[in-house]
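#struct-pred

JT: dropping the chains for the assembly here, can someone run the whole complex?
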Amino acid sequence: MGLIIYCAGAFVPEEEAKVSVFDHGFLYGDGIFEGIRAYHGRVFKLKEHLDRLYNSALSIKLNIGITKEEMQEVVLETLRRNDMEEGYIRLVVSRGKGDLGLDPANCPQSAIYCIAGKIKIYDDALYNKGLPVKSLATRRNSPDALDPRIKSLNYLNNILAKLEANQAGVVEGIMLNQQGYVAEGTSDNIFIYRRGVLITPPLYAGALEGITRNTVMDLARELGIEAREELFTRYDLYAAEECFLTGTAAEVIPVISVDERVIGAGVPGEIFKKILVAFRELTKVDGPKIYNK
Ligand code: PMP
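RK: done, full complex below.
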């Protein structure tokens, strides 16, 4: 059976869920989105995702047209219509239909789309074995041109990086910023553990403010692990005792080598394992219930 999609104001079967060729999300990547997960009948960190979506909207001067409470209902109802208690939700708000010029002033009505489906970006085995990654020549967008904190529909910077990673024979690559500091993966945030401290790049390094990243920072502190934001370079990556990536789609996945330098013992580390257990526990209790039972 096909999916039921929320498509610009109505729930329709997936065959009928179509976007106009004049939609500026399609023509110019003018829009924003969220990738969200449901676990155990709840939508994990939904408030945080909606806050980020509405902040992205403010940043690109996009009027979403409905409240966060109404948007929460769109997400929950999309899951209910698909009878889903676990899965991946893609929530998209585009500038809507306009003319062939890029001016958003000619797009009178933004459009909201919500898809509840599945996602798998890495093979299951890699979560136990860990990922080999490589640093990439493609630099992360500079925050003074297109701030990576805006979760926009324009993902070509990341896609160029992903193509480079594919070509280098790895399933994920690490992006640096213009100054050579580590920024993030192509669609996930990065952490290293070194000398007793868990470190992730600050947002001004050019990273999305990942919901999973923030969750991992909170969990680490609850576990008594010192966690902080700090700029670091490839040297620090190579010298790290542990490394892992975080993201809604990726969840928490260990990295075992960077540019063919083995990280730690070359197997998923103890800090990673503790965080993963705490993360899995949190997915059982966090977020609004899909059904009010
Ligand atoms: N960085 C980028 C570029 C992303 O697209 C994503 C989301 N897929 C992340 C980091 C991780 O963010 P989150 O934990 O909120 O999914």
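JT: nice. Residues 35, 158, 184, 187-189, 208, 210-213, 246-249 surround 4'-deoxy-4'-aminopyridoxal-5'-phosphate (CB under 6 Å). The mean pLDDT is 97.
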